[in-house]
Design a protein that fits this description.
Distance between the termini: 11 Å
Number of domains: 1
CATH class: Mainly Alpha
CATH topology: Arp2/3 complex 21 kDa subunit ARPC3
Helix content: 55-70%
Shape: globular
CATH architecture: Orthogonal Bundle
Strand order of the largest sheet: 1-2
Strand content: under 5%
Low-confidence stretches: none
Largest sheet: 2 strands, antiparallel
Structural class: mainly alpha
Mean pLDDT: 88
Number of helices: 9
Order of helices and strands: HHEEHHHHHHH
Radius of gyration: 17 Å
Length: 201
């Protein structure tokens, strides 16, 4: 297993003593960025699922933090939402609070910690060092997000109409846009490694 970007930074002599505080701060930062990304949402008339930038923040943040801390950042995000803070995407029909997790977008939200863990785990194995492997790591995480979201829509929601309907409302309208966003976001970690002068492995 290779060190993540965060653990490499914290291994430097001038930051080692602040390791626990820096880790907590990094987790909090990704949590906040996830909440901010949720506010940049575009409702679509043919689906209850809005278009947001959250998945990319979840995945890039996890690749910087690693599996354990990446997952912690998304558990923290969900905990804030369950507590009633307005961290979920603004919606005229979907409530804030724990009820959001029981609504049509709940599957995507509940998949975030698992997607973050997978993306972080792959980053710990060096897939965040280069562009194409970053794309693969983020695609793996995005697959978790869509799997959770579509299964929730098609199977677990009251009055669910099956997986074909769930794909039509929760996958097909978003996959192209999310892949384009992913291709752009995948440059972040390789560039961070290069700009900071840390050794690529």
């Amino acid at each position: 297993m290779q060190p993540t970007f965060l653990t490499t930074i914290l291994a430097r002599p001038d930051t080692r003593a602040l390791k626990i505080g820096e880790q907590a701060g990094a987790v909090a930062l990704v949590t906040v960025l996830t909440a901010v990304a949720a506010q940049i949402s575009i409702p679509l008339p043919f689906t209850p699922v809005p278009f947001t930038f959250q998945p990319m923040v979840v995945l890039v943040g996890a690749m910087a933090l690693g599996a354990r801390l990446g997952m912690a950042s998304q558990i923290s995000y969900l905990a804030l939402g369950i507590a009633g803070l307005p961290v979920f995407a603004a919606s005229p029909v979907l409530p804030q609070g724990i009820a959001r997790l029981l609504g049509p977008t709940g599957g995507y939200l509940m998949a975030y910690p698992f997607a973050a863990f997978l993306a972080g785990w792959l980053a710990e194995r060096g897939l965040d060092r280069r562009y194409m492997t970053s794309v693969l790591a983020m695609l793996a995480g995005l697959t978790i997000v869509f799997t959770g979201g579509v299964l929730w829509l098609g199977v677990f929601m009251p009055n669910a109409h099956g997986l074909s309907a769930a794909l039509a409302t929760g996958f097909y309208p978003f996959i192209l846009g999310d892949v384009i966003k992913l291709l752009a976001a995948a440059i972040v970690m390789p560039r961070l490694w290069a700009l900071t002068g840390l050794r690529l492995r």
